Amino acid sequence: MTKYYRIEKGTKAYEYLDKTYNQDTDAFLNEVTELLGFEARGHIAINRTPLIITKKGLKELKPEWMPKFKKYKGEWMTPKTAFKELINAYEELRQKYNMDMTFRNFNINNALAGKTEVIYDFDNSGFVYFESDRKILKEDFKEITDIDYIKRNLECAIWKKERENE
Length: 166
Fold this sequence. Notes:
Number of strands: 7
Oligomer: single chain
Strand content: 15-25%
Distance between the termini: 38 Å
Radius of gyration: 20 Å
Order of helices and strands: EHHEHEEHHEEEH
Strand order of the largest sheet: 5-6-1-7
Structural class: alpha+beta
Largest sheet: 4 strands, antiparallel
C-alpha cells in the first residue's frame, strides 16, 4: 500500500533533498571544462566520485596527460595519485556543486527500498513531499493523506506548465 509523507525544512532529509534538487550540473561541467582545458561534456562520468575521463577523449584532447592517468574500467581513465592538483581541484568542484548527493544515496541512507517518488520544494513552501510503497518510520518523514499528496502533485504540475509557457 502506498504511503505519503511530508518532510519539513530544517530536517536532514529535507536539506539533503534540497541540495540534490538544486544541483547545477551545467555550471559544474563548465568549471570542469575550465579545469581540464577541454570540453567535459561527453568525456567525463559525472556520477562517480573520482574524476573519470574517456580514454579516447584524453588521447585526442590532452595526450600529454596520458602518462599521468591509469586505466579505470573498460575505456575509462582516472588520474594517478601523483596528479594531486587535478584530483584535489576536481574534488573541490564536486563539493561546491553537491555532486555527491544523489536521490539514490538518499534512499540508501534512509533505508528506503521499493518504489519512491519525490515532489521537491519547487516553490519554497518549506516542505518536500514523498511517496513510498513502504512504511517509513524515520522522524523526518511525517505521514500525510493521499489527498494532501495529490494536491501538492497538482500544484507542481501547474507550476511546471506555467514555467514552460513563460
